[in-house]
């Protein structure tokens, strides 16, 4: 940083610190042990230095923090679980005022109404446990228990009951939001419906949500968790497996079946079936035959709801404080409506010729997302700003190192894999999932890929509710 830029940054930091202090907003002082811990991102590859770090305990504190940011022309960023792949919860760039929602983690169930009010700072494992402990309730959400319910919900929220119950944002009834002008409003289907539409897919750009009201469902028990261990040994074998899964997901996958193919050094086909073993076999056996893995090694076990979640959580549901789990990686996504035979072939060739030789800890995850009977695809495309209703798969490309830094010269590995696929389908508008934020996208690419045809309407709403761009970031709406 040059001398003048340093001086400007120093003055801004002093001004925001003094404003927060006068307004009695709790903070982690820059340089303190709490601050140093709190700015550790989930993805160690992408680190930032905020201008100030607020830790509000009340909605009034959030309002005061937003006002301090706006008055001092410092961009304001909400952070919930801090799991953004691009560290968007730390601003996605240096110099933001971070508003950490960690104190907003109450979960209150209204069992008669099957509704729950959930603070946005909670982590999924804790939220799921609290919902279950209050009348065995549940919502649809992602698999990693450390992810924040705030970022997950405001940009999607896919997990192993989403094909049955919809995305997390599909179950949202209401949100309490602090806007850029520091007022507090409710967003719902009947109050501020445009804002409610924008929050469900692009939330970070529109305000700080302090709590959500969700509709809940009674947690299903006796769920069949399945995992098949498979080892494709040629590009054509992988292509056959993917073709079979795609055909099945689009045309024959029942809503009670949720599944994913995890392609890696060890490949698994896994998921959850919410039904009986006899029905599961009836549904699954023809698919396994078409995939050519009828005789593969399998595990199928019956699980309670919390054990079902734990089966996919890589650890206990309840999360330690302070949260201190991190990885170092680069990631991309694709949300294709369909993969043509040529695209599947290119994907499989790339796997055979490039990925298999990569010694880092990479994977490509295919989540069955859409298709004829998916609860996600049944939601009308224009009813939320989430733009991927017709995506058959949610594909996540992930390349990680288990120690040391991730060298930027490795990024072409995943960029090349995505290009190999998209080059074969020039007519397809491939969407990408902002919850798997991709740091290699320019802001224009990010806007187009994350929000497709919804972007224009989002910008119009942004201009109305945040004309001064108090909530900014390198990839969010209006940036
Ligand atoms: C290990 C891991 C597993 C994952 N598994 C899944 C999965 O199974 N399914 C899935 O769909 N996704 C999954 N994700 C992606 C995850 O949903 C996103 O990274 C999500 O945005 C993280 O939310 P967060 O609150 O933890 O992150 P943060 O970094 O805190 O926030 C992410 C974004 O949301 C904004 N934001 C957060 N809280 C608020 C708020 N209260 N008001 C306004 N804006 C806010 C932030 O400003 C930022 O732009 C996973 C991520 C990781 C790292």
> How would you sum up the major sheet?
7 strands, antiparallel
The CATH topology of the domain at 3-100 corresponds to Uridine Diphospho-n-acetylenolpyruvylglucosamine Reductase, domain 2
Poorly predicted regions: none
CATH homologous superfamily caption of the domain at 3-100: Uridine Diphospho-n-acetylenolpyruvylglucosamine Reductase, domain 2
**Second CATH tier, the architecture of the domain at 3-100:** 2-Layer Sandwich
Radius of gyration: 22 Å
Distance between the termini: 23 Å
**What overall form do the CA principal axes indicate?**
globular
Strand content: 15-25%
Secondary structure: number of strands: 17
Kindly provide the name of the CATH class of the domain at 3-100.
Alpha Beta
Class based on secondary structure composition and strand pairing: alpha+beta
Bound molecules: flavin-adenine dinucleotide
* Portion in helices: 25-40%
Number of helices: 15
Sequence of strands across the biggest β-sheet: 14-11-13-12-16-17-15
Q: How much is the average pLDDT?
A: 97
């Amino acid at each position: 940083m040059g001398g003048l830029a340093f001086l400007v940054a120093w003055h801004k930091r002093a001004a925001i610190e003094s404003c927060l202090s006068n307004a009695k907003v709790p903070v982690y002082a820059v340089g303190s042990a709490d601050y140093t811990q709190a700015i550790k991102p989930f993805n160690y590859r992408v680190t930032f230095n905020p201008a100030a770090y607020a830790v509000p305990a009340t909605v009034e504190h959030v309002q005061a923090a937003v006002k301090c940011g706006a008055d001092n022309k410092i961009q304001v960023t909400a952070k919930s679980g801090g799991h953004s792949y691009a560290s968007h919860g730390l601003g996605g760039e240096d110099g933001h005022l971070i508003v950490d929602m960690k104190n907003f983690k109450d979960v209150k169930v209204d069992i008669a109404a099957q509704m729950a009010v959930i603070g946005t700072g909670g982590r999924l494992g804790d939220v799921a446990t609290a919902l279950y402990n209050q009348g065995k309730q549940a919502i649809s959400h992602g698999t990693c228990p450390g992810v924040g319910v705030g970022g997950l919900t405001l940009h999607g929220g896919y997990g192993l009951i989403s094909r049955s119950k919809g995305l997390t944002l599909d179950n949202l009834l209401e949100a309490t939001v602090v806007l850029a002008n520091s007022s507090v409003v409710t967003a719902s289907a009947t109050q501020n419906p445009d804002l409610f539409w924008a929050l469900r897919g692009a939330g970070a750009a529109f305000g700080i949500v302090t709590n959500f009201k969700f509709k809940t469902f009674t947690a299903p028990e006796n769920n069949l968790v399945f995992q098949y261990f498979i080892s494709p040994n040629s590009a054509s074998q992988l292509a056959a497996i993917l073709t079979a899964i795609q055909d099945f997901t689009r045309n024959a996958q029942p809503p009670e079946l949720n599944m994913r193919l995890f392609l890696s050094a060890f490949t698994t086909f896994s998921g959850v079936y919410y039904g009986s073993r006899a029905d599961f076999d009836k549904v699954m056996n023809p698919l396994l035959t078409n995939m050519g893995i009828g005789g593969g090694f399998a595990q199928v076990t019956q699980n309670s709801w919390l054990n079902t979640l734990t089966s996919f959580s890589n650890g206990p549901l309840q999360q330690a404080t302070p949260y201190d789990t991190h990885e170092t990686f680069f990631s991309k996504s694709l949300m294709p409506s369909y993969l043509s035979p040529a695209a599947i072939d290119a994907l499989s060739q790339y796997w055979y010729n490039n990925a298999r030789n990569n010694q880092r800890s990479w994977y490509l995850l295919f989540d069955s997302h859409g298709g004829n009977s998916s609860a996600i695809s049944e939601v009308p495309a224009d009813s939320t700003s989430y733009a991927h209703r017709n995506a058959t798969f949610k594909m996540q490309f992930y390349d990680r190192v288990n120690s040391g830094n991730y060298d930027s010269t490795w990024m072409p590995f995943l960029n090349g894999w995505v290009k190999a696929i998209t080059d074969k389908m020039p007519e397809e508008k491939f969407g990408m999932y902002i919850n798997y934020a991709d740091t290699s996208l320019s802001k224009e690419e990010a806007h187009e890929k994350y929000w497709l045809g919804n972007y224009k309407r989002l910008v119009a709403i942004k201009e109305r509710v945040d004309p001064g761009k108090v909530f900014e970031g390198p990839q969010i709406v209006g940036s």
